[in-house]
Amino acid sequence: MYKVLYYSMTGNTKKLAMAIADEIGAEAESIKSLTTLPDAEVVFLGSGNYGNKPGEDMSKFIEKNDLSGRKFALFGTSGSGEGNEVRAMSEALRQKGAVVLGSYYCKGRAFLVINMGHPGKEDLEGVRKFAREMIKSN
Ligand SMILES: Cc1cc2nc3c(=O)[nH]c(=O)nc-3n(C[C@H](O)[C@H](O)[C@H](O)COP(=O)(O)O)c2cc1C
């Protein structure tokens, strides 16, 4: 019914993906192992931020799939914690006719010493709450 897909170079966004999957009883999968978008009522789609953009594999995945009318809830992590990766994903998805239900983003540990401890307990509790809300509102 629901699916969690993510791109995570250093593991931070994967932590959010695992927390969402656990919260809603869905499977989480890296988009690296996928070519087509699986059937699901809502797809939770997440990426880290690299050079102020989502991962290249994520952008390509969005570009090459037919997303018209498909529903997404977005999540992301970055050094700044400002959510530019989810905004870029949201824009790309909307251009392809997809529906974006909402998004969650937080800081992720970067370059070993920046944002140590993130995503932490509060971040993970926050993303679990977000996942519940996305399902309730859908
Ligand atoms: C190659 C690289 C480029 C990055 N560029 C940015 C950036 O432009 N802005 C930012 O806020 N964080 C940047 N970061 C930090 C990551 O967004 C942050 O560590 C994020 O949590 C990584 O997610 P991941 O562990 O799921 O790969 C960069 C990290 C890497 C490894």
Automatic annotation (TrEMBL):
Domain Flavodoxin-like, chain residue ranges per copy: 2-135
Domain of life: Archaea
GO MF term list: electron transfer activity; FMN binding
Entries under PROSITE patterns matching the protein: FLAVODOXIN, FLAVODOXIN_LIKE
InterPro entries: Flavodoxin/NO_synth (IPR008254), Flavodoxin_CS (IPR001226), Flavoprotein-like_sf (IPR029039)
Name this protein carries in UniProt: Flavodoxin
Source species taxonomy: Archaea, Methanobacteriati, Methanobacteriota, Stenosarchaea group, Methanomicrobia
